[in-house]
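Lab notebook page, bench 4
Experiment: in silico fold of construct C2
Operator: M.H.
Input chain length: 180 residues
Purpose: comparison with the prior construct
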Amino acid sequence: MLKTLINALKTGNATTQYPAVPMDLPYGFRGKPEHDEKQCIACAACASACPPNAIQMTVDESAGTIAWNINYGRCIFCGRCEEVCPFDAIKLGNEFELAVMAAEDLEESSTYLLEHCVACGKPFAPRKQVAYAEGLLKNISGIAGEELDASLAKLRVCPTCKRTMDAKAAQAVSRIEGGR
């Protein structure tokens, strides 16, 4: 017994002084995901990649909004959301102390407006996504003039109406070609 006591005194403290003294976190530590509402375009890549479904997207067509929601109680801090986000809107921070008094305090939400189809009026995509696509067309695509205007107009049409328009155009072409 005396031998064990002497070894323990020579070894010193085996634990840290946490929580009295903050912990030194190692490089690459994965803590709570931090969501940047301004960077996010509500593309839902993070929600699709989240293994425990801690991140979810909820569409409210009557309000014309899409909500980004995270439940930190379900989050396993795997970092998939950070990996797949094309706009760096989610970064894993160093915060890991998530003890709260109410389960609702473990939830965070952001709401984004939906773009409405110019043909039928139904909401179909987040406005920030449509604005991003517009920017790509204007700045990167290399098209201009009437072709650019036509492409920009198509961005404001929902997929269902686009299919209908394309079908009508295909029928018109087949009638013209059939009449030759």
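Observations: The mean pLDDT is 90. The first strand starts at residue 33 and ends at 35.
Next step: discuss at group meeting.
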